Every structure is written in structure tokens, then in C-alpha cells.
Amino acid sequence: MTSSPRQPTVAVAGGGLAGLAAGCALAEAGLRVTLFEKRPFLGGRASSYEHPGTGEVIDNCQHVLFRCCTNLVEFYERIGVQDRIRWYDQMTFIEPGGRASVMHTSPLPAPLHTVPSFLRFPFLNAADKLAIARALLPLTLTTQRDTGQPFAHWLEHYGQTPRAIERFWKPILVSALSEDLDRISIPYAAQVVRESMKSPAARHMGVPTIPLTDLYNAAGDYIRARGGELHLRSPVSTFQLEAAKAHLKFTAPTVLDPKFINKTSEREEAFDYLLLALPFDGLERMLPETPESAHLRELLSHFEGSPITGIHLWFDRQISDLDHAVLLDRTVQWMFHKSRLQPSRVLTGDGVKIERSYIELVVSSSKSLIEKSRADIVDLALGEVHEFFPAARDAKLIKSTVIKEVHATYSPRPGIDAYRPPAATLWPRVFLAGDWTATGWPATMEGAVRSGYLAAEALTYAAGVKDSKFLVPDLPATGLMRLFNMRLFK
Ligand SMILES: Cc1cc2nc3c(=O)[nH]c(=O)nc-3n(C[C@H](O)[C@H](O)[C@H](O)COP(=O)(O)OP(=O)(O)OC[C@H]3O[C@@H](n4cnc5c(N)ncnc54)[C@H](O)[C@@H]3O)c2cc1C
Asked: Is the CB of 187 under 6 A from ligand 1?
């Protein structure tokens, strides 16, 4: 698409999923998009880069999605990377000692499709399973409201056994929401359960087969192909508004040669609209001193971050033939076998495949690790790997690194939804996106893409572009869940 003088111009601040989704949608709708990203690469909290300590290109952390993430799946199709996602319909749970149990889908209708595997799980006894079933019924069949209490209280009320909490609720919810059960709001927990139960496909897990930034560079190409521009290493510092224009202040590299990147200059450019797709703390720092900012600052003051830690280990041999697994009862919650998930990582020497394992271990809500040194975290993780994967005891650790994302996601605490702002702001030319805005979804790639599409819809409406709908419908419920979806059991 070529630019014409009548095309409205829009500056998108932030090259994470929210900014990229919004930028793609707006470029498709015929607006001239200029995207500003402070880092040298796209993807934001879902990105990859060459890690200086190991010399490897690593993801900041393994990212997964589920089929119920319909807007993210549509975004992948839009930018042409859908075949870079490998889908899994099985999930393996491993106990310390190495016993593995697999959750399969059966031919039973939703929400009963995983019941046969669940009943066979050896790591839960009959009392645990009964308690879990008692809690799943209201979570699946009724609407759960925010009572101000955390989900841990709700579980207590529904008589959950300590093992049901430790081996069922924690692995599912702490990973999905990156927060402890005593800090998760009840509707967020209920949403995770309902979304995963609505059809057998909903819980199919997707894993990128290429590094994250390679995946999301396709969104940058999509914007450029529609006449847009991307400015990397270009942090936005603030903005000012006039009746018909928004002035963006940013810093940009003055020399294009990456060896001279520290030469920058302060610049200012005027646009018809601004779309701020920044994390909540980043937005707070760039708000101008105007009365309209006060309300937004008040909302932002209620957000807190929750950490996620990724531990990357390279072994001299294969330590498991699994692509990924949920690990029970220890600090580490997930193992992702990156050398199996990303085929380009298979090492070859003289045309011969070298069978090594590169794994990433993920700890969500990793508050207990933040103060620990990286060496201590690697020691702890290695000890746990030896417990779960006995083959690793004979393997040599070649290299390792630890990535602590201290502000990985916003904490889905009771009451937080009241503070999540919509896309439209008190400034008619300024719109918000980001996983923390009011999307109805927790801090996920799906939530970020939804926020980008919602902001693009609000902006195109303001710009008078007709019929711009970007959000796609949720995954339809199947089986018995169709009845529950009709809210017969409110
Ligand atoms: C460790 C970790 C693991 C996760 N795992 C999963 C997972 O498995 N599945 C899942 O769905 N989600 C996961 N998430 C959450 C997911 O990554 C985020 O919800 C999503 O990527 C947020 O996207 P965003 O665009 O809203 O924000 P961001 O990705 O934070 O994007 C904001 C962008 O703005 C840029 N920026 C900041 N300030 C400025 C400025 N002044 N000027 C210009 N640019 C600026 C930032 O550099 C960034 O690129 C995980 C997150 C983390 C951190």
C-alpha cells in the first residue's frame, strides 16, 4: 500500500505484542504507522537476543499459547508465521524420581474429555480427585465474581486437600497467571479453568519452533509492507497535544552503523494519533504533567509486577526424550527441551548430528529466586533436574545462564480489574494498549494482542475509518460446554 497525503498518521510507542498487533491492524486499515521501540529488537517481553555470556540466541523465556488464544492465533496467521507453531495435545507430569503421567484427550465430550487420564493420575489419590471434581463443577458451570478474597481462600472453602493444591491447582494456575494462589483473584482462576475446559482443542498447547524475535519480526515486515516505518533503539520520552496533532518526543540513533549506536539525538515529530503500547511502569514515566494524566496515574499506582525466572542449561548429551513436561513438588515448574523444540538448534559436526540437550526450566511467580545468585539458582535447578531426569546425572553441564524477569507480568490480585483502563483515554487522540489494559484476559500474549486490536478499533473509529473490526471471536464451546456457555447455571 502506498502512502497518500490523506492517510491519517499514527505513532505506536512500544514494539511488544500489543504495539505490533495494533500497528499491523492500523496499517491494514490504511493508516500510516510509525512504530517506536526503545530496544534494538521487537517482541518486548516475548523476545530473543544473542546472550553475551553464552554466545547463544535465547528467548527471554519460553512462551507457550493455547488454542483458546484465538486473537494470537489469528495474529500469527495475519503475519504468516502460523506454521512456526508446533501444537501438542498431550501434557506430561513428572514426579521427583522420574515417574511420568500423561494427560490425553479422550473421545468424551467437553468438559469430560480429560476425565479418563485424570482418573488414572497416580500422583493424586481418590480423596484428592474427589476434592478437585467438587471445585471444578462450580468453576466450570457458574460465573465466579471477585469477592476481594484470593483464590487460595476459595480452594479452602471447597475443601481441597494439600496434595490437590500442590499437584493440581498450583501447576495449572501459578504457571498460567504467574502469581501465588494466595494473591490470585477468583475470576482470573475461574477463567483459566473455563477456557481450558470449553473444548478438547482449547487445551492444545502451541510452542514456537523459532526464536521469539524471529517470529515477531514478521509483524515488523507486515507494517513496512503497508507503508509503515519502524524505529528501533528509539525510546519515546513524552508527548504533547494540540487540538489537531499529537507531538511525540523521542530519542533516535543518529548513525545507522550499529557500532556507533550510542550517538543519539532528541527529536520531535507530529502525528494525528498516538497509540501507547507500553508496560504500565513505562507508561507512568512518560505521561505529561497535565490534568488528564492524574486519573491514569491513579489507576497505574494499583499495578504490581510478578517475576518469572528462566534457567537455561546446556548438557553434553540427551537427558530426556520429552519435548516438555510439568515438574511437580519442586521449585522448577516446567521443563522445555529447546534443542527438540527448535530444530535449528540441533548441532551438526561433519554432517553428523550431535545429540546434546539444551533445556529451559521455568519458575513462574519466582519471588523466592529474586535474591539468590545465579550460581545458586543453577545449583538448585541442576539438583532438581537430576531428580526428574535420571539420565541427566551422567551428563556434563556445558554452560548455563539464568534470566530473571522481575516485572514479567502484572499481578492478577483481587480487585485489580477495576483499575485496568480501556483503550480510549481522556485525550481524544491518544489510545492505550498493553497486556495490563482492560481486555478481559490476564497478562499473556493473547491479552497483549487483544489489547492491540481493541486500541486499533477505538483509534480507527475516532479516525472515521469505517467497519474496522480486528478482534476475532472466542473459541466456540463444544460438547456439554455449549449448554454451560449459554449461562443456564448462573
Ligand atoms: C518471563 C516471561 C514469561 C512469559 N510467558 C508467557 C507465556 O508462556 N505465554 C504467554 O501468553 N505470555 C507469557 N508472558 C507474558 C507475555 O510475554 C506478555 O503478556 C506480553 O508479551 C506483553 O506484551 P505487551 O506488548 O503488552 O508489553 P511488552 O512486551 O512489555 O511491550 C512493550 C514494549 O514497549 C517498549 N518500551 C518501553 N518503554 C518504551 C519507551 N519509552 N519508548 C519506546 N518503547 C518502549 C518495551 O521495550 C517493549 O518492547 C511471559 C512474560 C514473561 C516476561
From this structure: no
